[in-house]
Amino acid sequence: MHSFPLPQRLWIVRHGQSAGNVARDSAEAAKLELIDLSTRDADVPLSDLGMEQAKALAAWMARQSPEERPERLMTSPFVRSVQTCRAMADALGIDTDCVHIDERLREKEFGVLDRYTTHGIRSTFPELSAQRQSVGKFYFRPPGGESWCDVILRLRSVYDEIKIDHAGRRVMIVAHQVIVNCFRYILERLDEATILAIDREGDVPNGAFTEYALAEDAQTLKLVRANMVPEDLAAVGATRAPDAPAGPR
Fold it and tell me: Would you say 79 and 107 are in contact if contact means Cβ atoms under 8 Å apart?
């Protein structure tokens, strides 16, 4: 039995395409060692396409029936997530002052590997690259960074608070690809092999959402759909850009 009631519905959304996604793709294609960004990761905004993706998703969600729309919004503090969340708030008529920004929903921290491409990691940090391949992305923690397990630990406390503060409500979280997958690990009670198999299937599309609904027994949340790309989002162009250098598969 759960200690607290559960939300009625929960959506976990990946932010729209960011300028960082675009810069990373360019760097990887050119086989550069570093991704060319002039700001820290937390301040990287949406690209022009990313803003259109955010507005498209928001427009689609606003057309759903009232009981099929979120009434509470939470977001990572990173600019690209906040921009995506604000587009949703505007479309749904939710006061942006009521949007809850939670630092525990931030992107996974990459430590010394931050801004390095796959090629850059292999050439600059060969020992870490070998360790990463040996340990696997679930448990590998780069110096100064986080493993997936570290992210899962902070997300468990977020979920506990959602159960307390938003019981019976419809809640949407806007964050990052690894946040989507780590929440799936928690909510669906997966193991390492299963979540990494899901991860190998492909990147979470920018702007896509994974949705859960309260089960009939009111004791669990059941998966309704994963990585959903609504028609409005598909019309402006769905993208599947990784947030981090490709890890062991």
Answer: no
